[in-house]
Amino acid sequence: MADSTVYMPGIVLSSVMFQHLNTDSDAVVDKEYYSWLREGFILGESKEEEKRAITDSTNDHVYFEHTIHVQKHLPCNRLNKFYNGTGEVDMVTLRKMMPDNRQDHLIGWYRQRRNTEQRMTLRERLVHENLKNAVANPDLIFLLLTPSEVTSACSTHETEFATFRSLNRRFHKVPVVVSNLGSLEDVVYRTSYAPCSSAGYHRVVQKHKSKFFSPDDTQREVMEINKMNSSMQAELQKECKKVEKSEQEVQTLLAQLTALRKLISKKKSLIPEKDVLRPSIRENLLLENSLKSLFPHSPLFQTQTLTLHGVPVAESLPPRLTTPCPHVDPEP
Amino acid sequence: EWKLHELLCSFQYRIFGRNNQFSAADAFLVCMNHALSTEKEEVMGLCLGEMETDRIVHIHSVIILRRSDKRKDRVEISPEQLSAASTEAERLADLTGKPLLRVVGWYHSHPHITVWPSHVDVRTQDKNTKTGRVLYTCFQSTQAQKGAEYERVEVPVHVVPRDSVGKACLESAVELPRILCQEEQDTYRKIHSLSHLDPITKIHNGSVFTKNLCSQMSAVSGPLLQWLEDRLDQNQQNIADLQLEKERLQLELASM
């Protein structure tokens, strides 16, 4: 198996942690609405590349590098859960939860468990194996996050996270790297240079200089990348405004639903009990008649008097109970 | 060779007396995203919130700051930054209807365990576990008396659930790529103004600028944009579901 590494952007990890914090607290007002946020799917891309390296022992060492890039997470839909109590995966539900062919980008699933160890449970292993087979992805990963309090004073908290993958039904941890600016190769600005006095060198530079510099000595590449970055910032601002509006809309609806539920509950409490429609008891007369004809004398279908322990009291007992007496040989 | 990624954040609050600190989950999201944006340097920001009583502080949002001095084991906030933060706090106070909103603390990150408060057991992990870890801790520095050494006092910190991401936090979140770009542009401007450099070196430096901006776009802006789009999709789906539920409840109410 090639060496594998999972790369996850910081915002994805932060977002998963944020959603967990919104579910696992007594302060959550609408627990039912948020209970589904503890688990979900991971979408992204998986790549395997052949690489060659020169080592001291060989000048053609071929190895495979497998990288799994996490792009986003998809919390499970509140109405559906994609597996049952025995870990069997419901593909119909899974497809409903991932419209628009997102299933092609399904690279794993995740779960958050507070104050537990970084070990997969039996059910999680079963679900993982079943999901792996259902989506036909042998490299499917499982991301487990386990938040906990480190100090008794609740001043320090930690969240451990790891990804698991199965091979021949054995689970191995795959290293996770949180992609960030610092992990990229350092390339620094130069403030000095080694002068070159070659005439040919200067001729080549002069010949191609205009492709890099504008007449006012600004660099074309720098201008273009600045423009691209400005467009990126504008896109971020635009999306930010849309998300802000949608957050407000969600909040307004939640408030309206809470008010409606309160009103309904209040109205229900004012309705007198006799007016409350009770479900009518329906009798199956045909069944009753059949049982009477088939088992006319069966005590199970007759009215009986029972003791406190549920033992039927026989109706034909004499007034005085007979007591056992010692055996006496009959007179000759 | 795999990499174990450990980033630590610490919230520091400078007042006297024992406090409880509450941070809204969306402020926590912005702060964590900021801290996870780089493992090569410490990031820092300010916490905006309210003091509820003498002992309880609520953090509602954060302001991401540029670091003027990026040397290790030191963080500095300039008077201009503090002044700008106070102005921002006033603006948010008007926006959110919380007139007591102000700067209540600051946060910074400790990637790769540079310097960590001694009261926290970092528990250096066995590298073979391949498990990532993120910690956050809250403390205040107090002096028993004037002139004495500062001591660290633990402050219980709780992240309060917030079922939505507030406007202030959304604006702070998208501020990060803008600040990173500004830092890079300022650095490049200083370098490019060095008139003694030859064209090849200038082209090299231009490429460094391009490369750094590309890194910011791919490591920070891109994933953030992805997250915003996903959040919008999720909210729109939730709105549709909530609308259906609302109609159902209205029907139920009408039938009563």
TrEMBL record, chain B:
GO CC, alphabetical: BRCA1-A complex; BRISC complex
Domain of life assignment: Eukaryota
Record GO terms (molecular function): cysteine-type deubiquitinase activity; metal ion binding; metallopeptidase activity
Pfam families xref list: BRCC36_C (PF18110), JAB (PF01398)
GO biological process: DNA repair; protein K63-linked deubiquitination; proteolysis
UniProt domain MPN: residue ranges: 21-158
Parts forming coiled coils: 225-252
InterPro entries: BRCC36_C, JAMM/MPN+_dom, JAMM_MPN+_peptidase_M67A, MPN, MPN_BRCC36
Keywords: Coiled coil, Hydrolase, Metal-binding, Metalloprotease, Protease, Ubl conjugation pathway, Zinc
Family: Belongs to the peptidase M67A family. BRCC36 subfamily.
PANTHER family: EUKARYOTIC TRANSLATION INITIATION FACTOR 3 -RELATED
UniProt protein name: MPN domain-containing protein
Species the sequence originates in: Gadus morhua
